[in-house]
Design brief:
Bound molecules: adenosine-5'-diphosphate
Number of helices: 19
Radius of gyration: 27 Å
Structural class: alpha+beta
Oligomer: single chain
Length: 581
């Protein structure tokens, strides 16, 4: 009996030893993020999370930052169920899933991890910082301003409330209107600053401030050249023809993605010594002797003061993600409408400046992008085939209802009047080949096909059947359109640009709907990017650039004018703030 007991004890001890041995070590796991598979290696020491290494991932740089945040939180708390990173839900989910998968292989259940009190993350932050120029917001405008100010010799700190830089610029296509650009020259397209001004004014129903428009138009080409030569942004060798422009003038960054802009702007800023503090929302502007002299921000629940000896630049973007602010300014823009915006676009800069008496303009003008994902509101880059003049928009009845290269607001309004408030974009295989959107935006393409929002079919009839579109009408629409192409004139909607007839299948149809995209209103600035108060006087020490400003695009911003705007005014703000005494 004694022998049996000691044998059993030995077994129990051996099993316990095996359990410990199983828990400590490195374990790999997988999850699915926004861009694809995320593979991690988890190191467990003494039953605690000692480290997490990301072995493989396809997240874009901004979203990849979310994984760093989660990793730090998991190690600090010894927990895997940590809060998702706002604005990076899919990347967060994929990363957490991968870590849990790895943990399951260690034999430790997530609830068996003993929680630790997270050491306060403020240890790496002071209560006060001194800079010449403090910039709020690390989107395109903020980073362009930061680089310019740093090139002028200023000490610059950029505050970013999210865990990743980039804002709406990152998730945009990054296209930039620039009259007289190098590709227009190559293609023999005549353009001028004057014509660009006219397009912006007409596109905005002449509600724009013509002086602000002129400065934008005059400096757009220089800004594009600066991005290319100074910042190192790579541009594709083709342009896009955005709605409302009178000629094709929009440059396209590498992969038709704002990622290229943000990556290069961030690298250049950091090379110049610009400090970027992420997870640090600015909450208040502080004045001293009538001049804006500091920004109060929060980091991990702690207040930090950033002193700005020369000036503060607000580059906080628009307010497309602030439902209350949207509704207060335009009741039509309620919760029923989806949004393409980054979650950080909550109008903070406008609110902070208003506390100092800043003037706002055009707040009611909120733009919807006409062809977004009908389920999520995400901007669909596969739809760029339309901007290459190679797709038509039809309704459920199989009929065209608007000029496909019209202004965004005109198309959006027309779509809302169609059955179900949706439109169907149609194109053929030749157009797919020519535009290459299935390759340049492969993840999006695959995802749309998987969810049935985009269909590829051998015949027009089959493609129509997927959505219940009237196939007979659709064929008649295609035949009519092809005739217009042959005659060189679209008799129904007078479509601009080259008219290219549809030929053989396979055919593609994508279901789309309008979603909130850009807030045209914002802070009133002068041509020096200084913020103006309700009496029209400059607020000393305060500058603003980008979507946080108003009066540049009037009632409606034309596609690709935002990148021109944020770069031009970001540079002006950076330069002027750095020049302050
Ligand atoms: P723009 O195109 O004008 O540059 P973006 O949307 O690209 O605008 O960038 C604005 C950035 O400002 C976003 O990264 C957003 O998260 C950030 N931001 C917004 N509000 C604040 C705030 N209160 N403090 C710090 N950053 C902010």
């Amino acid at each position: 009996m004694k022998k049996l007991m000691s044998l059993m004890l030995c077994c129990v001890l051996l099993m316990a030893a095996a359990a410990v041995a199983l828990a400590d070590g490195t374990f790999q796991g997988e999850g699915t993020g926004k861009g694809g598979t995320i593979k991690v290696e988890l190191t467990i020491e003494n039953d605690e999370i000692a480290d997490i290494a990301v072995l493989e991932h396809e997240e874009t740089p901004g979203f990849a930052d979310a994984m760093d945040t989660l990793r730090a939180a998991m190690i600090a708390t010894n927990q895997v169920d940590v809060d998702m990173v706002a604005g990076a839900t899919l990347s967060s989910t994929g990363f957490i899933e991968a870590v849990k998968d790895a943990l399951s292989k260690s034999g430790i259940a997530p609830e068996a991890l003993v929680a630790k009190e997270a050491a306060t993350q403020t240890a790496d932050r002071e209560a006060e910082y001194d800079a010449d120029v403090v910039i709020v917001g690390a989107g395109g405008a903020g980073l362009a301003a930061a680089i310019t100010a740093a090139e002028d010799g200023a000490k610059v700190i950029v505050l970013e409330k999210m865990s990743n830089v980039g804002g709406n610029t990152l998730i945009s296509g990054g296209e930039m209107a620039a009259p007289g650009n190098w590709l227009q020259e190559k293609e023999g397209i005549e353009d001028s600053v004057e014509q660009f001004c006219q397009d912006i004014l007409t596109g905005g129903d002449n509600e724009n401030d013509p002086e602000l428009v002129r400065v934008l138009a005059e400096n757009a080409l220089d800004a594009a050249t600066w991005l290319r030569d100074d910042v190192g942004v790579e541009f594709e060798d083709y342009m896009l023809f955005f709605g409302g422009h009178s000629v094709k003038r929009s440059l396209v960054p590498k992969n038709a993605s704002g990622v290229e802009l943000i990556e290069k702007l961030t690298a250049r800023a950091e090379a110049l010594g610009v400090v970027i503090h992420k997870n640090t929302p600015a909450v208040k502007l502080v004045t001293e002797d009538g001049k804006v002299a500091a920004v109060k921000a929060e980091y991990n629940g702690q207040e930090i003061t950033y002193h700005a000896a020369k000036g503060v630049i607000l580059a906080t973007g628009g307010f497309g993600s602030n439902l209350e602010m949207r509704k207060a300014n335009n009741p039509d823009m309620d919760e029923k409408i989806l949004s393409t915006n980054s979650v950080g676009s909550t109008g903070d800069g406008i609110i902070m400046a208003q506390e100092l008496g800043a003037q706002t303009v055009d707040m009611q003008y909120i733009q919807t992008y006409p062809t977004c994902d009908p389920e999520t509101g995400t901007l669909l880059y596969v739809g760029d085939v339309r901007l290459e003049g190679r797709a038509i928009l039809v309704n459920l009845e199989g009929k065209r209802f608007v000029e496909e290269l019209e202004r965004r607001d005109v198309i959006s309004l027309a779509v809302t009047e169609q059955t179900g408030g949706v439109s169907y974009m149609f194109w053929d295989e030749a157009s797919m080949q020519a535009s290459g959107v299935n390759a340049s935006h492969k993840q999006e393409y695959d995802n749309l096909i998987e969810r049935g929002i985009l269909v590829k079919a051998d015949t027009v009839e089959e493609a129509c059947a997927h959505f219940g579109i009237d196939a007979v009408e659709m064929q008649a629409t295609i035949d009519r359109y092809n005739q217009y192409c042959q005659d060189g004139k679209d008799l129904e909607f007078n479509k601009r640009g080259d008219l290219i007839a549809f030929t053989d299948g396979p055919y593609y149809i994508m279901k789309t709907t309008p979603a909130i995209h850009h807030t045209m209103g914002g802070l009133k600035i002068n041509t020096e990017a200084q913020v103006v108060d309700t009496d029209g006087n400059v607020i000393p020490g305060l500058y603003a650039a980008g979507e946080v400003t108003g009066d540049i695009h009037g009632t409606n911003r034309l596609g690709s004018d935002a990148i021109a705007d944020i770069t031009v005014y970001g540079r002006i703000a950076g330069h002027n703030a750095a020049a302050q005494e």
